C-alpha cells in the first residue's frame, strides 16, 4: 500500500466512489493516508488512516509521499512540482482526467482539444509546472516551441527542459540523467501518463533554461 498526503485544507471522504456518495469523514491538509484501492475510472482512491477504512476521496487532492524521495535540493524550481505529479494518467474510456485538462488549459489550445485528455499534452504539462513555479512558459501545446524558449545550454542540469524531434510536433520534458545513447526524461504524455522514460540522444534538439 502506498502512502499519500492531503494537499487541500479539507478533503471529504465518501462512502462510495462518487460525488453523490455520503460524506463519512473529513481529512485535513498534510494528513497522511494509505491508498488501499482505486476505482475503475482511476478518479477515486479508497483510503485508510490509522488502520481504519475511511472511504473514498478524489485522487486530485492527494500526492504520493514516495515521489518526495525523488526530489533533490539542487533541482531547478519546477522539479518538485513535476515530480509530485508522477502517476497522473489518462482515464480509459470516455472520461477525461481533470488534472490533465488543467495542464491543457495552461496553454492557448482551443476547444474541444483543451478538454480531452487524449490531446497531446507533453508541452501542456511542462507549461503547467513552469508556471506553477512562477516562470513564464510558452503557452503553447506544441512541444517544439520550447526550442525557442529561454536560452540554450550545452551541459544539461537536472530539471532543464529537453526538446526532442518526434514527427512534426516533437516532444518535451524535464531532463533527469543521461548515458551515451539515451536521456532520462520526466514528462507528461509518456505512456499516457506523467512518468520517467528514456529517449534517444539522436533525437535531442536542445536543452533549455529560462535564464
In short:
This protein is mainly β and 211 residues long. Helix content is 13%, strand content 36%. It is built from four helices and 13 strands.
Could you characterize the architecture of this molecule?
- The chain has about 210 residues and is mainly beta.
- The chain contains four helices and 13 strands.
- The protein has helices spanning about 65-70, 80-85, 100-105, 120-130; strands at about 1-5, 10-15, 25-30, 30-40, 45-50, 50-60, 60-65, 150-155, 160-165, 170-180, 180-190, 195-200, 205-210.
- It is globular and about 55 Å long.
CATH class of the largest domain: Alpha Beta
| Biggest sheet statistics | 6 strands, antiparallel
Q: CA-to-CA gap between the ends?
A: 41 Å
How many helices in DSSP terms?
Answer: 4
Overall 3D shape: globular
Label the CATH architecture of the largest domain.
Alpha-Beta Complex
Beta strand % = 35-45%
Radius of gyration, in angstroms, nearest whole number: 18 Å
Low-confidence regions: none
Helical/strand content category: mainly beta
Overall pLDDT metric: 91
| SS elements, strand count | 13
CATH superfamily of the largest domain: endopeptidase domain like (from Nostoc punctiforme)
- Using the coordinates shown, work out and report the CATH topology of the largest domain: endopeptidase fold (from Nostoc punctiforme)
Q: How is the topology of this model organized?
A:
Layout: E1 2-6, E2 10-14, E3 23-28, E4 32-38, E5 44-49, E6 52-58, E7 62-64, H1 65-68, H2 79-83, H3 98-104, H4 122-132, E8 151-153, E9 161-164, E10 171-178, E11 182-190, E12 193-200, E13 204-209
Antiparallel strand pairs: 1-4, 1-7, 2-3, 4-5, 5-6, 8-13, 9-10, 9-13, 10-11, 11-12
